[in-house]
């Protein structure tokens, strides 16, 4: 069979079915087939490295193919889906809140959060959880996946990422943002949240409270979605939350030594000294995640 | 298990290409694999329910104990003492009365004594201090007392372009719209002793607001007062120099723009001496208002608020009721799933 014929067989299958094709080969005459298939697997070894160079995945022996598919293939599929859905979710959850705040600021376009805290949201505070999900998450151990090859089916039937799943996550994000914003708004509406009668003033006070709750909810949601908690997952989740607290404290103290963020000066002191903030921290993230917890159960 | 990508022949020559056989790189990290089962979830709901409901009850009771008295003095309550049958709101609008200040006296009674520390606030309704253009209309460098031109964000309240050409001090829409009613209380015929110290954020007062050097010259000669102000910043509290100019606490309180269109700001605190040692006694009071601040053009309302506080803050039962509500939901969930679990013996998913 010539290389061109091999490639044409794969092409025929691709065109006549909707299926994803995989081709595995070890010689130079397999290169065409490997490149035509959706997923090309090359075996590096006796017949040289051409097949390996042209392929998406390279393995050392033919028998490794089962592990590649049943373990790493499924893991990779599930991880990718989670990372994608989670990334949409966490951004929708945060930014839709600007819409809710718009109802209260005359639709003037005033943002609820300070601009650098928004910018650093994806870079620092919620960067680690999707990485933990994408690199480390697994539904079952490698041995189990090999023992029950039927589990491969869950990556074949688009169960983890389809239109319904996507919109469910988006609606979930909107639901969380509604709870987070409106409960915080109602909690802080009367302006006096310290025992010494001081008025907290500033939409940023509300913004920082809400932002803290968002970080909690979003990071803990990553934990809920995670099927396996390694120590790195713990670091990712609790570390992200801690990094926000640390940043908040530092950022609230730099003006006017550093000519940046005058509106944040003193925020950490007044937010952390308000019992409303802490009581809200206990109540609001739990309320938001209750439904998710039940659903996962 | 051998790492991928190696063969027996390569092993000796290309040791460096073999991926490290660590738990991290070979995806063998030990992990806790939480599977939410009835045995783990049910206690969670029970614990949440049992802790949240008492917390909620405590919070609701605490909030109920806070005493508050509001007086809306926007229009009909506040009748001018000088012009007959005119509210101060109308007097402010009426060209005949320009230049004259309107005062009014409102009698009210406290039917309970307000024990402990008592705080006096002015409240505004339908006032969007959180509007984007308004929020940015300030110059924090100027408020630090630094030299330099007023920032362009302050426009159109940056400088007196039609008159002297001097910068406004303080510049910006927030400063220009500073609340300037005077509110005082009489208990019978006695003045209720109040203080205006400690009403602003301590960090604002200590760090964000500083008077420039040679303040008197700064505020009266080199800069103009904002167009809506009746006095310059250097006349805000001439008796106390730490409370004058930019460091005036009423000014600082005003500059911290409220989060919502219905808000209150701390105006004065009760000074607890002689008659008011234990707070505000029960009885008849009179609120004396010098009505300077116009709100009727945007359907705003003004209030005078007397309030005590609890160990948490002001009067807001929302948090308490939310705790109770969430606690009840958790208890109901617990009961429902407990019954389901026992009667139908829902199987756990097979362990992975």
From TrEMBL, chain A:
Its membrane topology is listed as: Multi-pass membrane protein
Localization per Swiss-Prot or TrEMBL: Membrane
Decide whether keyword Phosphoprotein is in the record: no
Transmembrane ranges, per UniProt, are 83-103, 118-140, 161-183, 203-223, 235-255, 275-295
Q: What is its main location?
A: membrane
Q: Which terms does the record give in the GO molecular function aspect?
A: ATP binding; ATP hydrolysis activity; ATPase-coupled intramembrane lipid transporter activity; metal ion binding
Q: Which GO terms describe its cellular component?
A: plasma membrane; trans-Golgi network
Domain P-type ATPase C-terminal: residue ranges? 52-296
The alphabetized list of GO BP terms reads: phospholipid translocation
Which superkingdom, per the lineage?
Eukaryota
* Keywords for the protein's UniProt record, in alphabetical order: Magnesium, Membrane, Metal-binding, Transmembrane, Transmembrane helix
Family matches, as Pfam families: PhoLip_ATPase_C (PF16212)
Q: Which NCBIfam families match?
A: ATPase_P-type
In Swiss-Prot or TrEMBL terms, this protein is called P-type ATPase C-terminal domain-containing protein
Organism of origin is Rotaria sordida
TrEMBL record, chain B:
Which residue spans traverse the membrane?
A: 35-61, 318-340
The UniProt entry, under Pfam families, shows: CDC50
Q: Where is this region: Disordered?
A: 1-21
Question: Zinc: is it a keyword of this entry?
Answer: no
Compartments, record wording: Membrane
Family from the record: Belongs to the CDC50/LEM3 family.
Q: What is this protein called?
A: Cell cycle control protein 50A
């Amino acid at each position: 069979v010539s290389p061109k014929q091999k490639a044409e067989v794969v092409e025929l299958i691709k065109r006549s079915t909707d299926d994803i094709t995989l081709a595995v080969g070890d010689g130079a005459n397999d290169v065409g087939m490997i490149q035509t298939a959706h997923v090309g697997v090359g075996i590096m070894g006796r017949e040289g490295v051409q097949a390996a160079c042209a392929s998406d995945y390279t393995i050392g022996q033919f028998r490794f193919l089962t592990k590649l598919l049943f373990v790493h293939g499924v893991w990779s599929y599930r991880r990718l889906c989670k990372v994608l859905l989670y990334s949409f979710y966490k951004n929708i959850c945060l930014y839709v809140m600007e819409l809710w705040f718009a109802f209260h600021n005359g639709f003037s376009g005033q943002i609820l959060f300070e601009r650098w805290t928004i910018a650093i949201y994806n870079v620092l505070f919620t960067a680690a959880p999707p990485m933990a999900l994408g690199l480390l998450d697994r539904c079952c151990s490698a041995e189990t996946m090999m023992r029950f090859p039927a589990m491969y089916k869950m990556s074949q039937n688009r169960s983890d990422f389809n239109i319904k799943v996507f919109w469910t996550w988006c609606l979930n994000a909107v639901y969380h943002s509604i709870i987070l914003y409106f409960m915080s708004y109602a909690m802080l509406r009367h302006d006096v949240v310290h025992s010494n009668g001081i008025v907290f003033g500033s939409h940023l006070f509300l913004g920082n409270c809400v932002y803290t709750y968002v970080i909690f909810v979003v990071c803990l949601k990553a934990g809920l979605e995670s099927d396996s908690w390694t120590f790195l997952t713990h670091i990712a989740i609790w570390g992200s939350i801690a990094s926000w607290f640390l940043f908040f404290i530092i950022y609230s103290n730099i003006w006017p030594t550093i000519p940046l963020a005058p509106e944040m000066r003193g925020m950490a002191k007044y937010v952390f000294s308000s019992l409303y903030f802490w009581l809200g921290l206990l109540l609001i993230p739990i309320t938001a995640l209750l439904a998710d917890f039940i659903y996962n159960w | 298990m051998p790492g991928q990508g190696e063969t027996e022949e390569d092993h000796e020559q290309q040791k460096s290409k073999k991926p490290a056989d660590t738990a991290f790189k070979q995806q063998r990290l030990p992990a806790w694999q939480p599977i939410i089962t009835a045995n783990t979830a049910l206690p969670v709901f029970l614990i949440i329910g049992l802790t949240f409901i008492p917390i909620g009850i405590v919070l609701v009771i605490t909030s109920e104990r806070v005493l508050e008295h509001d007086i809306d003095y926007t229009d009909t309550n506040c009748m001018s003492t000088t012009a007959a049958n005119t509210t101060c709101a109308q007097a402010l609008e009426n060209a005949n009365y320009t230049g004259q200040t309107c005062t009014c006296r409102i009698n009210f009674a406290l039917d309970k004594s307000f024990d402990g520390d008592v705080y006096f606030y002015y409240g505004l309704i339908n006032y969007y201090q959180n509007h984007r253009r308004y929020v940015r209309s300030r110059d924090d460098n100027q408020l630090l007392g630094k030299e330099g031109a007023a920032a362009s964000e302050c426009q159109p309240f940056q400088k007196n372009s039609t008159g002297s050409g001097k910068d406004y001090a303080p510049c910006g829409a927030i400063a220009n719209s500073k609340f300037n009613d005077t509110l005082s209380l009489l208990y019978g015929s006695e003045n209720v002793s109040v203080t205006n110290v400690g009403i602003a954020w301590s960090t604002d007062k200590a760090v964000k607001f500083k008077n420039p050097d040679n303040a008197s010259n700064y505020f009266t000669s080199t800069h103009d007062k904002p167009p809506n102000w009746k006095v310059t910043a250097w006349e805000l509290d001439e008796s106390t120099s730490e409370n004058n100019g930019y460091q005036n606490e009423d000014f600082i309180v005003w500059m911290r723009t409220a989060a919502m269109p219905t808000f209150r700001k701390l105006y004065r605190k009760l000074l607890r001496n002689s008659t008011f040692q234990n707070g505000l006694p029960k009885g008849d009071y009179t609120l004396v208002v010098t009505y300077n601040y116009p709100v009727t053009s945007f359907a705003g309302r003004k209030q005078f608020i007397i309030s005590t506080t609890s160990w948490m803050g002001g009067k807001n039962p929302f948090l308490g009721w939310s705790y109770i509500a969430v606690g009840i939901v958790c208890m109901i969930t617990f009961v429902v799933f407990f019954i389901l679990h026992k009667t139908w013996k829902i199987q756990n998913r097979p362990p992975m």
